[in-house]
Amino acid sequence: LVELLVAGSRASTLSTYESAWRTSATWCYQRGEDPLSTTLAFVLEFLANLHGAGKSYSTINVHRSMLSKTLPHFEGHPWDPNVVVSYMASLGENSSLPLSKLSHKTAVLLGLASLLRVSELASINFQSVTFSSSGVNFTLLKPRKAQHSGPLQSIFIPSLREPGCCPVETIKAYVDATAPHRNHSNINSLFVSCNKPHRNITSNTVSEWIRSSLAAAGIDTSVFSAHSTRGASASKALAV
Q1: pLDDT for the residue numbered 84
Q2: Which residue has the higher pLDDT, 182 or 153?
Q3: 25, 85, 140, 167: which has the fewest Cβ within 10 Å?
Q4: 140 close to 221: Cβ distance less than 8 angstroms
Q5: How far does Cα 128 stand from its chain's mean position?
């Protein structure tokens, strides 16, 4: 799980965490928010702003590691992605999963590993998906919310040692499983519907897939929504 939530090197010096705290606190103060008592949505937006500004994954990991130690709960509720990742791994080999479960697993692990919004997960450009020995690269079909100009941002997800919860291996399995269903009408987006005629899906469907998986893992979906994969990923303590 640590590897899933850490896409770069973890900084451990006190000065680094102090710098990350100053950045976070300044963000909150400028918006009239208490940095020691903020909401999941607010933290989510802070980390999304860092990502949208082009900060590296290692920089974002430093900030979310610092926040996890400072803000162990969001809105009074603990959100431990270990529960969800363990559930994903318990489903078994990707190749043996029905398309519905494999779709759900792919969406959840990508959401945890990438910090993408559900609308962005739904707009992953299928034709841009490129695998390498170290991971997978892809772009979206449109600029990210925080991107105002320039080329489409390339997103990299690293491979993990544990195949049961590796987002890269899961995406590979998903690409293979959906290959027979690809045609001119659904070749643009990564995700397609689980049933015929396997059309490209909307962000509402991705949200429902993730929420369904959270519920199956035992997460209270009346408290945590599909968007919580970003907040949970951001808030997890990254001690190694």
Answers
A1: 81
A2: 182
A3: 25
A4: no
A5: 18
- The mean pLDDT of 21-42, rounded to a whole number, is 79
Write down the pTM of the prediction. 0.67
Q: Which burial class, exposed, middle or buried, applies to 137 when counting CB atoms under 10 A from its CB (0-12, 13-18, 19+)?
A: middle
239 Cβ neighbours under 8 A, 6+ residues apart: 2
Q: How many CB atoms lie within 10 A of CB 10?
A: 15
Among 1.10.10.10, 3.60.40.10, 3.40.109.40, 1.10.443.10, name the CATH number for the domain at 81-238. 1.10.443.10
Q: Among 147, 93, 88, 94, which Cα is nearest to 116's? A: 147
Query: Which phi and psi (to 5°) does residue 110 adopt?
Result: -65, -40
The residues spanned by each domain of the chain are 1-70, 81-238
pLDDT tens figures, 95-111:
999 999 999 999 999 98
Tell me the C-alpha distance between 199 and 196, whole Å. 8
Percent of residues in the chain assigned helix, strand, coil, to nearest 5: 50, 10, 40
Which is it for the CA torsion 222, 228, 231, 234, positive or negative? Answer: positive
Rg (CA), the chain: 17
The structure tokens listed for 99 are 């398309």
Q: Is the peptide bond before 197 cis (omega within 30 degrees of 0)?
A: yes
CB 156 within 8 A of CB 168: no
Instruction: Measure the CA–CA gap between 228 and 181, rounded to whole angstroms.
Output: 30
The three-class DSSP label of residue 26 is helix
Please give the Cα distance from 5 to 234 (Å, whole number).
8
The 10 Å Cβ neighbour count of residue 133 is: 5
